[in-house]
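Fold sample X.
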Amino acid sequence: MASIPNGFVSLNDICPQMKFVMSYATADNFTGEIVDGYKAQKAFLSETAAVALCRVQKNVEKQGLTLKIFDSYRPVKAVTFFQKWAQRPETNPKIKEIYYPGFSRLELFEQGYIAKQSSHSRGSAVDLTLADSKTGKSLDMGTGFDFFHDLSHTESSKVNPEQRKNRMLLKELMEAEGFKNFSQEWWHYSFRPETFPDQYFDFDVI
């Protein structure tokens, strides 16, 4: 673990009861490829953010639920990978339909769905949902992770009451421990104050 900078910890180690999907370490994501820098389905965060997220996990467990992690720390090389991917011609209409049916690849950046510099690379952001602790089945949030559409806006009026209730439950639990939601994505939260507000890291997820 010598390549992991001081101030970062593995969620898999300190909070193993969470469920780790880590979509970018697989081809099951909006690019259809394993993303540069992801060499394992491991989740890293700055230590302060990780400890806070473990507190969320303990509170979630009281309701028979668990956190399911899609992404956490993201290497700079992964953000660069997304930028290069956006420049390439569309090759997979099936994936486009699943993740970004209303946009071209470049429009995902223009609309703010993908950032050219990401808080994930500062170790302060996490993408996640709630799941049943016994079955691992995700609660119904109205869309999947990385569905780039206004339906994914946290307070979208187009989702049904159960989906809105589930989103608000996640929001309430996360905000109670210092995380702030990104309004365009119900799954995206950043911990405040950040440990590394001006640093972007590029170590591999190993």
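Fold sample Y, listed below.
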Amino acid sequence: MNFTPYVTGALSAQKPFQGQYFDNVYDMRDLSGDFDDNGEAIGDGAPDNPGDILYQVPVRTGQKDNYNLSVGFSMTWSKPLDRTLQDQCKQAASANIDLMKQAAANKRLDFEIARLKNCGQLIKEGINFHPRSPYYKICADVVVQNVTHIKPHVHTIPSASRKAEDLGGAIE
């Protein structure tokens, strides 16, 4: 189901706005040009002053601006005729999520094994952080067991004759 609210608006206008215009009234009078039986001037059928403007008449144009505002909503409902594709889509999404979780777990395991290996090697070599260091906790949970070798080192043991000389005389 899909629910979509909407608001639309429209403006229709003519520019420049002109509410009225002036129409010319031309002089169409025909008062002369011919004579009647009594000798008085009468019209001959042609305007006496063609093209002359007598006056102007205001004419309303009917031009107006139109405004429209529509508010409403649209709702559709669709039902698939075949649910096979929808079910396959859900299965694919679930499989993809499981795959991403497994990839994250693998990366976490790789990180922890690398941390264990590096911390163990450093502990064997006698290298570690000071207990008050903020980094001490990085290797705090690593335990090295079954270490059976001792690093090569040399001790100096003084001989007995040398001890006597150091004591200030012969040993009797």
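Sample Y note: The helical segments are 84-124, 160-167.
Also: Residues 84-124 form the longest helix (41 residues).
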